[in-house]
Amino acid sequence: MSRTIDAHHHFWRTAAQEQPWRTDAHAALEADFGPEDLETELKRANIDATVLMQSVDEPAENDRLAEYAKSELVAGVVAWLPLAEPAAALAELDRINPFKVCGVRTLIAQDPLEWLSSEESISLFREIARRGLAWDVVPVTSDQIRAVLKLAAAVPELRIVVDHLGRPPLDTHGWHPWAEHLKDLSDCPGIAVKVSVGIDVLTRWNSWQREDLVPYVKWVSEHFGASRLMMASNWPVILLKADYQRAWQDLLTVVRDVFPEEADQALLMGGTAEAWYSLHVPAETS
């Protein structure tokens, strides 16, 4: 039976690195967050393991992640690579400690992704796929969506994970072009989506409202199905609008409402993350 996995969270020490994505609006995140801070929350929520994500684009981040990966609660690590520079990315991939590394990522914001179509990039992502690693990304513009889809077609063996529901317009209760973007992404069988909320939405959202999530989760459920969706907290970023327990329980309630079958719920609560990231989470023994 699948374990329960929080498929997206971060650890950091504010004095150890610059976080250029953090602004004056993010005072709640100006603190240190480590395994000891998350462990109690996971136990309260009956979560067995996690996927730790990079949050800074620099080689030192991978060294910090390797230390954090020693925590028993971390089942997988999504490391940083300078993906727009294939030669440097390969060198960093060879340099980092591979312990628990299950995926790679670089922060893209709304930057153009035309570099994804180069032969060097395609070769890089083939190597990433060969090593059994997933690629996490949050494409939000139409050009970014097209670039990701072109790469997915060129490297069909690559597992791609779209973080934070692909940035739905929760803050405005909008729909387009997000809905079309997610539908287009769903046509590629190598793409999965995290049921989580990203920093841009959390910053702009007036307040955390579980009901606001429902139409967006329903839409991705119709197009991706349970086997390509995974629950994720995005802790500690989620603290901008909700504490861990409220956020996780609200996500869980929405997932259970949208997916009444226990088998589907088990996929979102851990099975999809285990499969997509090739996690090896030991089963409980009696």
Keywords:
single chain, TIM Barrel, alpha/beta
Written account of the structure:
With 286 residues, the chain is of the alpha/beta class. It has a single domain, classed as Alpha-Beta Barrel (TIM Barrel). The protein has ten helices and eight strands. The protein has an eight-stranded parallel sheet. Helix 2 links the parallel strand 2 and strand 3. The two termini are 13 Å apart.
What does the secondary structure layout of this molecule look like, with pairings?
Elements: E1 5-9, H1 35-44, E2 49-53, H2 59-68, E3 74-80, H3 86-95, E4 101-105, H4 119-130, E5 134-137, H5 142-154, E6 159-162, H6 178-186, E7 191-195, H7 199-204, H8 210-224, E8 229-231, H9 244-258, H10 262-276
Parallel strand pairs: 1-2, 2-3, 3-4, 4-5, 5-6, 6-7, 7-8
Helix pairs in contact: 3-4, 6-8, 8-9
